[in-house]
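Practice problem: predict the structure.
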Amino acid sequence: MPLSPKAGVIWTSSRQVFIALLVGIGATLLFQQVIAPAIVLGARALSPNEGFGLYILRRVVPQVLPPLGGVFSGYAVARFSRERTSRMVVSYAVFVGMLAVPRLLAGIVNAAGDPRYIVGLFGYIANNAVVIGAILVGGLWLHGWGNRPTEVPTSLTDGPTRPEVPHPGSDPGQTRV
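Answer:
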């Protein structure tokens, strides 16, 4: 039995979302296993055992790596899904957000039972919000969301034309191009 046109669209969209999720997961793993260790090794090589370099290595690098990973994976998802870039990036960001829900619920239960866990819960929420925001920034803003033309002009005259603007000091009935 052949698929209806609507079912074909749903199947194509589902397949594209699945591919976007695989690309995002692969980019995240690549960043975690290859790029982030290289950044840490470079920071270690440049930092002495004391002072500002050690501060950068221990305090700044761990805070910067998760958003960088989000930007990298969001950009990779946008780069590999050219047709529906914004949908694929948003679906990957929602997927990452849904992965955080079980631990978030466990943190809420722990914080309800013992107020010591409230600070950790807020840190977890903030970290996930930053990573999801970084995915959206990497996929939508850095990739050029909305900057691509819908039609490619075939000649110089096919492009947008300038509107007629009245010349200052001339008769309002006369216009200049």
